[in-house]
Design goal:
This protein is α+β, with helices and mostly antiparallel strands and about 280 residues long. It folds into two domains: about 130 residues, Roll (Diaminopimelate Epimerase, Chain A, domain 1); about 140 residues, Diaminopimelate Epimerase, Chain A, domain 1 (Roll). The protein is built from four helices and 18 strands. It has an 18-stranded mixed sheet that branches. The protein is globular.
Length: about 280
């Protein structure tokens, strides 16, 4: 059976969208590796678009990493979804809501050509039971490869460990990120971000994504890094995040927990997949 898919880019994060409202079909974890191996299709995350699970919600999605594992959140994918839904008229409004396994997205197609994602407030305790005791800086110290990592815990529908460093260019992100996956601290894996402060409104960021490795950009990682920086008093509530490819604007209001990511999305191509 063949299904149509749409490949988009969110700051270099390659998203494959499969609209299961306008066409029949089903995609599950075992199908992901088949798509990669059989069809030689490159993507970082695959998102299926499905009917809403609740009456007040417009759509629902499932998110898969390219290794077939499920993901609860993908902010770059959310912006790509917003572009597709708005351009295709799948939902008649420029603002709409989407059910994910990590909570509800409020999505907006903005007049300036950008796309916004508002997500539930961050959680700072989910997953802490497997971490060492918090230190005086309200961080968790992890000893790995003779490096003492002082990380913040931020869950925004998916788990993030965030570490602020003076130098993120030479840090062995792939090696450390891989060793954190399935470790005693993160038995279910974690998205690991390292950030450098340039000013109170600007940071550089690299992210090792659970199930995908280091990517050119990670929207949820940007949100987690800004939240951690604000909690630590390093950042103001409006921050530009620089990736290897592109920038993302994050707004975080500590008093309310309101968290919004804003940035672009671009079409790459349309594909026909065998499932």
């Amino acid at each position: 059976m063949k299904i149509e898919a749409h490949r988009l880019s969110g700051l270099g994060n390659i998203i494959l969208l499969v609209d299961l409202i306008r066409q029949p079909g089903e995609i599950n974890s075992p199908e992901i590796q088949k798509i990669i191996q059989r069809d030689a299709v490159h993507f970082d995350q695959l998102i299926t678009i499905e009917p809403p699970r609740e009456p007040q919600i417009d759509l629902s999605v499932q998110i898969f990493n390219n290794d077939g594992s499920k993901a609860n959140n993908c902010i770059n994918g959310a912006r790509c979804l917003t572009k597709y839904v708005s351009d295709s008229g799948l939902v008649p409004n420029k603002k709409f809501s989407v059910n994910t396994d990590g909570g509800i997205w409020q999505l907006s197609d903005n007049q300036d050509g950008s796309f916004s994602v508002e997500m539930p407030p961050p959680n700072f305790t989910q997953g802490q039971e497997s971490l060492p005791a918090i230190n005086s800086n309200k961080k968790y110290v992890l000893d790995i490869e003779d490096i003492n990592l002082e990380v913040a815990l931020v869950n925004i529908g998916n788990p993030h460990a965030v570490c602020y460093l003076e130098n993120i260019v030479d840090f062995p992100l792939t090696s450390i990120g891989a060793k954190l996956q399935g470790s005693r601290w993160y038995p279910d894996g974690v998205n690991f971000g390292i950030a450098k402060v340039n000013s109170r409104n600007n940071i550089d960021l690299r992210v090792y994504e659970r199930g995908a490795g280091e990517t050119l950009a990670c929207g949820s990682g940007a949100c987690a890094a800004v939240v951690a920086g604000c909690q630590e008093g390093l950042l103001d509530d409006e921050v530009e995040v620089n990736f290897k490819q592109g920038k993302l604007n994050i707004s975080y209001k500590k008093h309310s927990g309101t968290l919004i990511a804003r940035g672009g999305a671009d079409y790459l191509d349309n594909l026909s997949l065998e499932i």
